[in-house]
Amino acid sequence: MFTIVAIHEWGHFAAARSNGWRVSHIEFWLFGGAVVSDEHSTKPFKEQAHVILSGPIQHVWIAILLFLLQYFMGPHPLLSTALHYNGLVLLLNLLPIWPLDGGKLLFYVLTQLISFQKSLKVTLFLSLACILTALIVLLLEQRMTLSGLLLAGFLLLENGLEWKRRTFTFMRYLIYGARRDPGKLKVKYLSIDPNTPVRNVLKNVRANRRHFYILKRKPGLYIVDEQECLRMFIDQKKTSLRMEDLPQIL
């Protein structure tokens, strides 16, 4: 089990380093592990998908190797056990549960469809729903084991901690957004009330969109770039600004 998990995490680590990510360390959990990097939420979608899928893909060649050993050497309990655990680790990690690979992949996909803040909340909500559903099914079918109970407790704890960290995670993403090059992002125009606080507007920040906000002001309209909102909020620390204040400053 440990060998399979270690190879899985090596896949994540190799992909992260090949993309130039800063990796602090690799940690191991009950039936799993993680490559710890603060950059997982501030990278392009293709890089994120590459790093996440590089873990599960290791199980493919492990399975092929084990089947070849069985073919040439004949059946053996050790090979059967290894195949069982290889499939178990793969299926478990692909569940849409945070912080498993499936949960992170779900989060990355959602960031392409809705705002970053909503993506994190929806991911954690669906993750919690999956954990509770699995617990109920296992209890009703009387298939709950001590290891399963410990794993469920660990996943619930991780989801709770991530929920508490959600503001910090969002602020870190805003800092990234203020530094990124928005030139390659698709543009979307949104009409907004000039009295809206800038901090509320930044809840719309997305990974693949650059918003321009249309303010209805006399004698006409005024357009504010989302990057200017980020710059004022992050760099200038003007946290109490309203959207109508920006044209006066700029």
From TrEMBL:
Subcellular location: Membrane
Membrane topology label: Multi-pass membrane protein
UniProt keyword annotation of 4Fe-4S present: no
Keywords, ordered alphabetically: Hydrolase, Membrane, Metal-binding, Metalloprotease, Protease, Transmembrane, Transmembrane helix, Zinc
Cofactor(s) for this UniProt protein: Zn(2+)
Domain Peptidase M50: 2-74, 78-130
Recorded GO MF terms: peptidase activity
Entry's Gene Ontology BP terms: proteolysis
Coiled coil: none
One Pfam family cited in the UniProt record for this chain: Peptidase_M50
Transmembrane portions of the chain: 51-73, 85-110, 122-140, 146-163
Stated family: Belongs to the peptidase M50B family.
Protein name, per record: Site-2 protease family protein
